[in-house]
Design goal:
heterodimer; A: Amino acid/polyamine transporter I; about 75% helix; B: about 150 residues; alpha/beta; Rossmann fold
C-alpha cells in the first residue's frame, strides 16, 4: 500500500507541472514509464505470464476454466435459461407496482455500456489477424461459457448488496465476499473484499479510464490528423466530471441514448454488409470452422486460433472480473436469481453477437491475405500476424474491413469508438467509486475526491503514451478476476440453492407472468 | 346500481384542475359517485441510465411519489373532501395514457376526464398528446376539458 502511495504521489508530482510543454511531457512520460516498469513490471509479468510452451496467459485460462466449471455446476444455465432470460428482460415477470424502479432491461443496458467498446472493435481485429478466422469459433465458445460466470456473480451481487435507509444501494463482489463468507463460516472474506476493492480502483483508473482515453484520442487523431492528446483528455475529463459529479445530467442522457443506438447501428451495418455478401456467408462460416481446428496456416495452428479466441472473449465481456455484479446490484428485485438470468445475456450480446459480427465482416471483406492456391493465410513474421491490406492491425483493420463496403464507415467508427470509450469510462468511474467507498466509507467529500482523481487520470491517459502504466492497470483488472472467481467457487452452492428455490416456485406457479396474474 | 367511478388525470396544470372541477360537477349530478385522481410520473423501462442513476433510482422514485402527493394530489384531495366528495388519489409511474386507461379498467370506471393542455416543459410531454391518445384508445368514454 505504501509503495502504491509512493507511485501516485510521484505520478502527480511528475505529471501535473509537466503538461506545460511537449518536450517536458516526453521526459515526464519516460520518467513515469521507468518508474512503473521498475516497480510493477514483475507483477504485470506474473499476471500475463504465458503457460509453459504456449503464448496463452494463465489468467485467460483461469477465466475460461471458471466459466466451464460454472456451466457444468449450474447445468448449462445459459442454454436452459436463455428463453427465461429474454422473458425477464421483456418485463413479462415485472410487478406493475414496481414501475419506476430500475427495470431488468435498464440494468442490462447499463452493464453492457461498460463492456461493449474497444474490445469488440479493435480487440476482435487483433484476435482475427493473429489467430485467423478460426479464432472466431473459440471466441464464441468462450463467450457462451462466460454466460454462466455472469449468472453466478450477478445473482450474488444482488443477494448480498447493501440497502441503505435512504433507499440507495451498493453492491458488488466486495459485499458478497464479506457477507457470503460470513454466512458460510469461512474466514478471509473481509481481506478478499479489501484486495478486490484495491484492484478495482486501480483497474478503473487504468483499463476503465486511461486506456479508453488513450484509444479515443488515437482514433480521433487517426481521422482528423495529429494534435496534442491532452486536448482530447481535457474535453473528456470535463464532460466526465460534469456527468459523474452531477450538474450536467443532460450529457449522460445524450450519451445513454446515443451509445445503445451506436451499438445497434454497428450491428445493423454489419448485418447489411453480410447481406450484401450473402453468397460468402457459408464460405466464411466454413473458414471459421476449418480455421478453428486447423488454424489455416497461422502460427501455432489449432492452438493459435484457440488462444486468440479464448483470450478475446475473456477480455471483452468481463465475465468473472466482477464489474457486472456491481452494475446489476441496483435492480430492486425480490429474486436475486432473476438478475443472474438477465446478466447471462451480456456475454451473449457482447461476445457471441457483436464480436462475431466484427469477425465475420473482417473475414468476408478479404482484408486478411490468403494464398489463392492453398487457402492458407499469408503470415507476416515481422509483425507477428497475418498479412493484411495496407498492413494495418487493431481498430484500423476493422475500419478497413468495413470501409470495403461503406467508405464513410471510418468516420462513424471514430464517433463510435469515442462514445464507447466515454460510456465505458462513466461505467468504470462508478465501479471504482463503489470500491473506493467500500474502503473509505460513503460520503460526499470522499466521493468527490475519487471523482476528481478519476478525471485527472483521463487527461493523463489521453496525453501520455504510458504503456507500462496501462499494462499495470490491465494487470489490476485481471487481478480482480483472481479474487472474484475464488470467491465464486466458495459461494456457488448458495447460488445453486437460490436457483433451485426459484425454479421450483416457477414450476409450481408461485412465480407467474404478470399477464397471467388475476 | 353501484357506485359510479370517474378517473381524472391531474398534472398540476390549470387544465387538469378544470378537469377535476368538471368531474366534481358530474359527480354531484350522478349522486353516488367516486372520483379517482391520478398523477402519472413519466417513466419508461426502456430508457438508458448510468450505474449511479440506477443505484439512486429507488430513492428518487420515493421522492417523486412524495412530491406528486405533496404538490398536486394532497391539496386537491383536501379541498374535494372538504366539499364532501368521495375521492381518492393515486400516483403511478409509466406512460400516462396507458396508466390512466388501465386504471379506468381496474376500477370499472364510467368515464375518464382529462385536461387538454398540460403544463409547459417536461410535463407538457406527459399530458400533451395524452388526451388525444386516450380519446382514440381508451376503453371507456373520455371527456377532454379545454
Amino acid at each position: 500500500m505504501l509503495r502504491l502511495h509512493h507511485f501516485v504521489a510521484t505520478l502527480f508530482a511528475c505529471l501535473l507541472p509537466g503538461l506545460a510543454s511537449a518536450q517536458e511531457l516526453a521526459t515526464v512520460n519516460e520518467r513515469v514509464n521507468q518508474l512503473f516498469a521498475d516497480y510493477t513490471g514483475w507483477y504485470v509479468g506474473f499476471i500475463f505470464a504465458p503457460l509453459p510452451g504456449t503464448d496463452f496467459s494463465w489468467i485467460a485460462l483461469w477465466l475460461v476454466v471458471g466459466a466451464v466449471v460454472f456451466t457444468i455446476y449450474f447445468g448449462a444455465i445459459q442454454f436452459s435459461g436463455f428463453i427465461h432470460s429474454i422473458r425477464l428482460v421483456k418485463g413479462d415477470y415485472s410487478d406493475p407496482n414496481d414501475a419506476g424502479e430500475v427495470s431488468h432491461l435498464q440494468a442490462l443496458a447499463t452493464a453492457l455500456s461498460g463492456t461493449v467498446g474497444l474490445g469488440n472493435i479493435a480487440g476482435v481485429a487483433v484476435a482475427v489477424s493473429i489467430g485467423g478466422a478460426g479464432a472466431t469459433f473459440w471466441m464464441i465458445v468462450a463467450g457462451l461459457f462466460g454466460m454462466a460466470t455472469k449468472f453466478t456473480e450477478c445473482t450474488l451481487g444482488v443477494k448480498y448488496r447493501n440497502e441503505y435507509p435512504d433507499g440507495s444501494v451498493s453492491g458488488g463482489p466486495m459485499y458478497y465476499m464479506v457477507k457470503g463468507f460470513k454466512e458460510l463460516g469461512l474466514p478471509l472474506g473481509g481481506a478478499m473484499a479489501v484486495l478486490f476493492s484495491v484492484f478495482t480502483i486501480l483497474g478503473a483508473l487504468g483499463g476503465g479510464n486511461m486506456f479508453q482515453a488513450n484509444q479515443a484520442h488515437a482514433q480521433i487523431s487517426n481521422v482528423v490528423g495529429d494534435y496534442p492528446g491532452w486536448i482530447t483528455g481535457l474535453v473528456l475529463a470535463v464532460l466526465t466530471f460534469a456527468v459523474i459529479a452531477g450538474g450536467l445530467k443532460s450529457i449522460a442522457r445524450v450519451t445513454e441514448k446515443i451509445v445503445p443506438f451506436m451499438g445497434i447501428f454497428y450491428v445493423l451495418v454489419s448485418v447489411v454488409i453480410l447481406i450484401m455478401n450473402y453468397d460468402q456467408i457459408i464460405w466464411a462460416f466454413g473458414q471459421i470452422f476449418v480455421g478453428a481446428f486447423t488454424g489455416l496456416g497461422i502460427v501455432g495452428g489449432f492452438t493459435g486460433a484457440l488462444i486468440q479466441g479464448f483470450r478475446r472473449a475473456a477480455f471483452s465481456n468481463e465475465a468473472g472480473i466482477g464489474s457486472a455484479a456491481i452494475a446489476h446490484s441496483a435492480v430492486r428485485t425480490k429474486e436475486p436469481v432473476s438478475e443472474g438470468y438477465v446478466a447471462l445475456l451480456e456475454p451473449f450480446i457482447d461476445t457471441v453477437v457483436i464480436c462475431t459480427m466484427t469477425a465475420l465482416v473482417i473475414v468476408i471483406s478479404g482484408v486478411l491475405a490468403q494464398d489463392p492456391q492453398t487457402g492458407l493465410y499469408i503470415w507476416n513474421a515481422e509483425l507477428g500476424r497475418i498479412t493484411t491490406e495496407g498492413d494495418v492491425g487493431g481498430v484500423a483493420l476493422t475500419s478497413a474491413a468495413y470501409a470495403t463496403a461503406f467508405s464513410w464507415f471510418p468516420v462513424l467508427l471514430m464517433v463510435a469508438v469515442v462514445l464507447f470509450a466515454f460510456s465505458t469510462m462513466i461505467s468504470w468511474s462508478y465501479y471504482g467509486l463503489k470500491a473506493w467507498t467500500y474502503l473509505f466509507g460513503e460520503g460526499q467529500t470522499k466521493e468527490l475526491i475519487f471523482k476528481f482523481i478519476f478525471c485527472v487520470f483521463i487527461v493523463i491517459g489521453a496525453a501520455a503514451s504510458l504503456d507500462p502504466v496501462i499494462d499495470f492497470s490491465d494487470a489490476m483488472l485481471f487481478s480482480m478476476a483472481i479474487v472474484n472467481i475464488i470467491a465464486l467457487y466458495f459461494l456457488m452452492p448458495i447460488v445453486k440453492r437460490e436457483l433451485h428455490s426459484y425454479r421450483s416456485r416457477l414450476k409450481s406457479g408461485k412465480i407467474v407472468k404478470t399477464a397471467d396474474q388475476t | 346500481m353501484g357506485q359510479t367511478t370517474f378517473i381524472v388525470g391531474l398534472d398540476g396544470s390549470d387544465a387538469g384542475a378544470r378537469a377535476l372541477a368538471f368531474a366534481k360537477d358530474r359527480a354531484k349530478a350522478a349522486g353516488d359517485c367516486k372520483i379517482v385522481i391520478c398523477y402519472v410520473i413519466e417513466w419508461s423501462p426502456f430508457t438508458f441510465q448510468t450505474a449511479e442513476e440506477n443505484a439512486q433510482r429507488h430513492k428518487r422514485r420515493e421522492n417523486e411519489i412524495a412530491m406528486a402527493h405533496e404538490r398536486v394530489l394532497d391539496p386537491a384531495l383536501t379541498s374535494a373532501k372538504a366539499e364532501g366528495f368521495d375521492i381518492e388519489g393515486i400516483v403511478r409511474h409509466g406512460d400516462a395514457a396507458d396508466i390512466i386507461d388501465a386504471l379506468a379498467r381496474e376500477r370499472d370506471a364510467k368515464q375518464i376526464m382529462i385536461g387538454r393542455v398540460g403544463t409547459k416543459g417536461l410535463k407538457a410531454r406527459i399530458f400533451g398528446g395524452v388526451a388525444g391518445r386516450l380519446a382514440t384508445t381508451a376503453t371507456v368514454p373520455v371527456t377532454i376539458i379545454p
